[in-house]
Each structure stands twice: as structure tokens, then as C-alpha cells.
Task: structure prediction
Amino acid sequence: MNQLCSVLAIQFPIIQGGMGNISSPKLAAAVSNAGGLGTIGCGTMTPVEVEERIVATKQLTQKPFALNVPINVNPHTKELLQLAITHKIPVVSLSAGNPTLYIEKLHAHQIRVIAVVASVKQALKAEQGGADVIVAEGYEAAGINSNLELTTFTLIPQVVDAVSVPVVAAGGIGDGRGLAAAFMLGAAGVQMGTRFIATEEMPVHPTYKQRLLDATDVETVILGRSIGQVRRVLQSPYASSLLADEAEGITLVDYQERTSEIFHIKGAIEGQEQAGFMNSGQIAGIIQDLPTVATLIENMMEEAQNCLNRTLLNNFKDSVRSVQS
Result:
């Protein structure tokens, strides 16, 4: 069995990203039921709001799912981790902060810990702190990203060489070719967010999904570089206004207010492109359909296997030609 699947007790090496306040029990359950690892993202929600989503997810699936806690984003980190313990959630994903402060307590309750990192240094620290899985995320990914802006293709092999625990590739992955490429780089699996937005089960505004279907390779933009808080979103009137204000010298407080989850919901859930934003990774340009989650995962696994088999066959043929010549 794949090492990642063994550690997380899942069938396929595919993890759903947290997605913040637009996180959906319906999507998380669908991913888990299809053999991957669904995730409930805490975003900036209160413990009461998160618990409602945990309960709803448990009613929809008997399979393992994860709780993603963005440490420096949500002020209720300790309470959220206690929810994971109380509800016996088997996996906790820790991002946007130092995960090592919480791993020992989670392990004491037999909870596996995923640490989301953006550099080799962060990966080493997470492994030393006891993380069971490392998600290494390139800045091709949607939403809040590291200011280091390392790409997935360069980050993954370096993290794989540095740590011994399973490494998951995140950022710029949306089909079986991406999964196969992640395997070739040494990763044990992938984490996806944007691709799961464009599925039947994800309850976002139809405009959001249509924007992903219509997206080109240059459909996303980076916000927040000027104040050191990088976020990747779809181009929109709202994003353009933010970029214009950045050029004029936006304040940190104003930027944080205008990229809060309130405006994320306005864009993603309400479809108001003039009044809010829609997170998106660069992978949006390859999205051509809105399948069920089960169909997406099944097709990805089949495509990845075909890619790997074709690569092995071609390498074998090249080796034979070399010997014959």
C-alpha cells in the first residue's frame, strides 16, 4: 500500500485542501467516501461554527476526514484542536503557523498530524516536531501562500530529500498527469483545492465554477506582495481594485480587512465579482468539466497509472535501442 494511504488509512493518495470559511461538509464527505481524505477547513470560523460542520460531515461519511486549523489565522486554535479530540477526528492538518506546539497533544489522542510547509527548513522543523505527513505547497496554489514563492516542481524534490515522512505535493495539481508528476518527484500523494471547487458536490456560486471552466493559463493574479501577504485569486473587478490600491500604497490593516473571509464569501458563495474575490490556483486553466468527486478521483488514478506505465515503457524501449545501437 502507498505509504501515505497507510498512514492516513485512506484508499487513494489524494487530499482535499482546507478552503477556509467556504469549506463544505458535503465536499469533504464526498472526497472521503471516494477514497481520498476530505477536509473541513476552520478558516476564521468560531468553534461553534466549526463543530456544526464536523457534525454534519460525520453524518455524511464513516470514512476518515481531516480538520485543517490555520494556526495564525484563527484565534481559537486550542479550542479547535480540542474539537478534533472530542469528536475523534483521525487527522488534523496544521497550517499558517508553527505546528510543533500542538503535535504531542494530538498524538496523545491517536490523531495523525499533517503539517503544511513552504520550504525545506519548515519541513525539517515539522518532522522534528513529530509531524506524520508533510504537505509541501508551491505558490501556484490558491489563496494564502508563502512569501517565499517557491514553485511546487522545485520544492517537492528538495523536501523529499530532506525528510523521511511521507511528502504530499500541493499547488498546481488538478489531474492524473499532475499526480503522476508528483510521484516522479518523490511525493507520496497530492493535495488539491481548486480542482475540487469545480465538482458537482461543492456548494459555491455557479459563477465561480463557470469562471474556472472558462479560465485560461493566465487567469489568476497575486495580491498582497506589497505588504508581504501573498494570496492567489481569480482576476476580477474586485481583485483589480485591490491591485490598484496596492500600487498607490495600501495599508496592512486595509488589505487584511478587504481580503478577510467576509469578502471571500461574497465572491465564492454569493458570486459577487465586484464585491468579493474567488481564490484559485494556476491549475484553473486545465479545468474543462464539473464531474462528481468520485469520477474525478477515479479518472485521476487511472490517468496517473497510464502516464507512469507509458513512461516506464518508453524508458524501456529507449534502453533497448541504446543496447542495440
Residues 200 and 292 are 5 Å apart (CA to CA). The chain is about 45% helix and 15% strand.
